[in-house]
UniProtKB/TrEMBL annotation:
Protein's recorded name: Putative isomerase
Keywords: Isomerase
Recorded GO MF terms: isomerase activity
Gene3D superfamilies: Diaminopimelate Epimerase, Chain A, domain 1
Amino acid sequence: MKSSNDIPVSVINAFSDDPFGGNPAAVCRLQAWLSDDILRKIALQTGLPITSFLVREGNAERLRWFAREGNEVQSLCGHGTVAAAHVCLRLEQEAPSTVAFQTRAGLLVATREGDAVAIDFPRWTITRCDPPPGLADALGLAAQEYWTAGRDYLAVYANEAEVRSLRPDFERLLALGRHGFIATGPGLSHDCVSRFFCPSFGIGENEDPVTGSAHCSIAPLWAERLGKQEIRAYQASGRSGDLACRVKPDAVRISARAAIFLRGTISI
């Protein structure tokens, strides 16, 4: 029996067309905002790395992301945005071709491109740096060079095999503070390959399956290195995912497919 408190929910695996691949997110369509306490409880109950909440506000969608442990994401969540875009642009009745999301990271505009969506994410500035003490040991293998993008550190390795071989000490990474740690290198069948370690982010996993926001710095690094704007990126986690990135002067446009795993209703 349908109640006035029923919330439509979809589980979307972003960055893959494999129903068991990519990065899963729950997307909840709200008519009006519920209390933050209820949003946290829903995120805890879904048990997914991210739960995205949508409310229409005028001509845009207000989008908020909550991590598995109930904390609201304060910076940027790429896969939660890709999942929300697929719901708005592919699943809902009278779906538009473009949707604008108002988020804590600013305005993010998504466009439908066949069975994919393309989103203009901010381009993050990266700066060459010395690694913080203990980072090489925590990752398990010294990198050729290190960069910082503010939220994240990037460790650049010689090849895909080195990136795949990493077995980090997550307790040591956690002791380095609230940062994400990107390992990246040239790919065998893609322009670049990466992994993203984030034990302090509250998503319930030490390694994020596929990280859209990390490519706000990964894509510009490899675009400059390879001398081209179009970068085909692969994240080599257990679930894995593909990202088609176009690097612009002030944005990184990421095109991504997604698999619809579940559609249903939350009753509270």
